[in-house]
Amino acid sequence: MVSETFPIPNSPKPITCIYSNPLHSIPDAPLPTSLVFTHGAGGTLSSPAIANFSTGFSRQLPILCFQGNSNLASRTKMFLAVIDHQKAPNSLGGRSMGARAAVMAATSETKFLVLISYPLHTAKETRDQVLLDIDPSIKVIFVNGDRDSMCDLERLDEVRSKMQCKTWRIIVQGADHGMDVKPKKLTEAVGIKTGEVVAEWMEAPDDGSRREGTIVYNQDGEIEWTGWMGADDAAPMFANHCNDLPKAVETTKAFSNRPDGVNVQSRVKAGKTTSAKSKSVSKRPKPVNDADDVESVPKAKRSRNSKETTKATTTNGETGVSSRTRSSKKKKASGSHYLET
Q1: SS3 195
Q2: SS3 (DSSP) at 38
Q3: Against a cut of 0.90, is the pTM above it?
Q4: Do 162 and 130 form a contact (C-beta atoms < 8 A)?
Q5: What is the pLDDT of residues 107-152, one digit of tens each?
Q6: What is the DSSP string of 107-136?
Q7: Nearest to 172 by CA among 127, 239, 122, 225
Q8: Residues 122, 276, 335, CA angle at the centre, nearest 5°?
């Protein structure tokens, strides 16, 4: 795999791009590209979520990632500029706000849309209409962490059932909106695996009923892709988030309910249920500190009278909200964590 950084002419300034492919050399322009991809509102090309995904994807197919700003309309125009420069590649994608821009930039010639951590909802709205308007001929794949505070899986199911185009979904066990998992040391490997699975899907999408799959892992660093499953198939999991399991006796868990008959075995940690595990199952996951465009944050949360200060931090290369301090003991207002990357 090789990579090259270069600018694409655009006004008011050039668009910085990173091109990666599975070959041992960079071909002459125009570069063959399977996917044009971009980051979230507060991210960069060096953000771990982008770097990990593109690393995995480019092991099989060429990908071009471009740097954009935090303005949705401007990012959409950048997509169009890159498409024109690359001689109209047929696949677009992005994560979070970048996924929104990809959908808006799609044309009748677009074949695939890769939507990672699509920010389906905020505290006030559901961003579903643009998805419902996607051309029926386009194949769409969603990649979501099951702890993503900006894309509830059940709400996404409802939207997918209304969409005219065919959709697939990869659920990443334990991942939040930024595609971070616990333990943190596995985030890179899980992200790379996600890119590999998406590239495999683009090469040969299953047009049948198997359109749901899960990437699972445990604390030993074992990562598995369940394969595509049907709606009635129970997605095999590492005993409900292996990262929460106590370290005790090692056992073997067989994924015997895969529709293709393959019996995938993975070692899992087994032991008695602890109070910590019980909390992780029954308690609603904490909202993650994911960065969003400012327009998504209710104005009331930014008023001086709220007596609330917000500190910005950088999480995995993307701006987020790290902490809040209050002068009173009032409870936190709901919806304030909906920040998009």
Answers
A1: helix
A2: strand
A3: no
A4: no
A5: 888 999 999 999 999 888 999 999 999 999 999 999 999 999 999 9
A6: -TT--EEEEES---B-SS-B--HHHHTS-T
A7: 225
A8: 15
**Eight-state DSSP code of residue 302:** G
Helix axes 97-105, 72-85, angle to 10 degrees: 60
26 close to 15: Cβ distance less than 8 angstroms: no
> What H or E segment, with its residue span, contains residue 140?
strand 139-145
Give, as one character, the DSSP assignment of residue 327: S
Terminal-residue alpha carbon distance, the chain: 27
How is residue 339 written in tokens?
A: 């920040």
C-alpha span between 54 and 35 (Å, rounded) = 10
Q: What residues contact residue 278 under an 8 Å CB cut-off, 6+ apart? A: none
**In this structure, what token pair is assigned to residue 147?**
């702890």
Tracing tokens 């070959």 back to the chain, one arrives at 23
pLDDT tens by residue, 79-106 = 999 988 887 678 999 999 999 999 999 9
